[in-house]
């Protein structure tokens, strides 16, 4: 007996067990539909198959946009190291760390707002507004001389601007890819790693020659150029996927602040908890690693290169595991393996051999690879358990919770690493514990999604 096809509305297969008004995340019971072992919330027939010029251009545009949007995020260690030893040399390290914690907090936390804006209006409007805010914030940063100046210009204005560019550049990928979403997200996310290589090298060269102010201005104009090119290239499909109700985007923003998601959908809460500890290990490491090397007596040129190595290896880290996940092992399996690799890198490299510069370079490369993998896979994991129409809200909610770890992470790191060799060793032990918890929670998430069976999930 033939079955009638499911009713379509706005390009999405209707699912009775999904209540978008309550939460963007599906319940455990609703994960039923599978293709080649992958749970799907959207009909793959609604996505282009094979080569599609707009889809490919969107990935390239997202890559370039994220190079500009996340370049300053991944160069935070170089910038903090410079201002600590020069512009703000008379300020307490803990006070300086709040500048970069607030920047990361707003860059990720404001996705809670930019996500529903993207779901309602598509990618063009938020990227334009965010790009302008980020550029103005960076220009203002170039004239800063006090901590509160940096907090307002860099932490607040540039941070919020980054969120309104970063979120839509990630979310728009889900409008074009379904079964190959992890690969596409990995390619676009690798732009952040490229930016994390380009900007530290620029600052390393320009800081001694033209000073902090003009170096930041050069970086701001380069970032703006990349954002504009990316904005031109990306195309969304908001007419097909938008499901924002009559209350408009402001009601959606208000409704998206719903922490009942955590106990309504434990899988979502577990994934976010894992990302929280991953984020602590990543953010503190990339910022404190140059300071750790300086504390050991190594030159600034060497410490800046640590950030370059870290971000260089994050580029293949954002792509290779995503390909393996989509083609062979599954996203949750690869996520668990990468978390275990991160823990091993801490335990066998930084903890016992961190006082050697060569070991620090090896650690920077290995952990850069694994952290890049976690960042790109986390977006595909969240996208795996939300409908395409709600990707913005899903990512926004996840990164909003994650941003609180960013907010307190650097002040905690600065409070632990007070300046002595022993205090920096204690910081490494703390980061190792974060990596351990992240690895454990990743296996819990994998079990909740696929059980104990050894299969592709």
UniProtKB/TrEMBL annotation:
PROSITE patterns referenced in this protein's UniProt entry, alphabetically: MFS
* Pfam families xref list: MFS_1
Membrane topology, from the record: Multi-pass membrane protein
The species is: Candida parapsilosis
What parts of the sequence cross the membrane?
Answer: 59-83, 95-113, 125-143, 149-170, 182-202, 214-234, 267-291, 303-320, 332-353, 359-386, 398-417, 429-449
**Tell me, what is an example of a GO biological process annotation in this record?**
riboflavin transport
Under Gene3D superfamilies, the record lists: MFS general substrate transporter like domains (1.20.1250.20)
Main location (coarse class)? membrane
The entry's protein name is Major Facilitator Superfamily protein
